[in-house]
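ESCALATION

Customer reports they have been waiting on this structure for their group meeting. Please prioritize. Original submission:
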Amino acid sequence: MATIGDVARVAGVSRSTASYALSGKRAISEDVRTRVMDAVRSLGYTPNAGARALATSQTMVIGLLAQFLEDEFAPAMLQYILGVSNTARELGYDILLVTEDDGTRALRRITDSRMVDGVVLLNVAEHDERLPLLRAARQPGALVGLPEDCSGVDVFDLDFEEAGRAMVDHLYKLGHRELVLVSQPDHVVERGGAYVWRLQNAAHEQARQRGVTLHSVFGASHQPEVGRDLHAVLDAHPGATGLLVNNEAAAAALPSVLHERGLTAPGDLSVLGRYSDEFARTFSLPFSSIESAPDRLGRMAVRQLVRRIEGEVGPGEPHVVRFVSPELVDRGSTGAPPRRTGG
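Update from on-call: job pushed to the front of the queue and completed.
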């Protein structure tokens, strides 16, 4: 089995230089770092995690706290987990995925025991009970999701307010004057899912300013309930010419609902969703959408977290709150509203 001494010999450097190149604890030239990494790959060297943790006080593990909640669509959550885990791997860190229901107990366990070098939180609530613990922990933390109080952590999220305004404006400019917004289940809002009302409130304000009638409904997170919800909302608002979808389960169910009703998009109804391009490909969704950017948000959170872990960001430097601006991906499902024939 290869040792750090073998890596140093093949790379033509001292043991300490090879160790620094791998740990990132000291500035190493790019040429030396490349030689060390080439030696690592050629030898198949794997650092001993226990010895490394004792020597450097680092585990090279990032804790990822996420939950697969019944009121949210699990495939959408997986997009965020993949963004975090892929970036961590690229930066030389493993992921400890923690999904237990008691998030505060889980966070206390992995931080007090120093099982991880830093923590990423998903499923962030407006008043998240995990945040006081994370702020008090020795390890730095990063959030994908916006709480009310962002102090003491780095925060990354989609600009949901701007997304809501952009969705309304896109259809308004095409001539639509009556729209329906399908959001996540109402109990997502009740437990603190602020992203739902952030988009919804902004969309309603923009609709008011534009003179657009906007009906809001909460859709279920699973079939067949969400399919019935979509049929019900289309029955209730026959004058609506555009459908805004901030609910991944509803977006996935919509093609079959439109087919059952003999409707096409945009011929009969313009449709604009909010989900990732990868999600659209996975479910073969033909609808235009605002990109939710889960992979980009995961990358941003992990990169900032690693910068704090490795000392590139000093402990006294302010934490950041960064939003990803909404980008519309046009898949041809929006157009001018259909002409209504008189009876």
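Sent to customer with the following note: The chain has a mean pLDDT of 91.
Escalation resolved.
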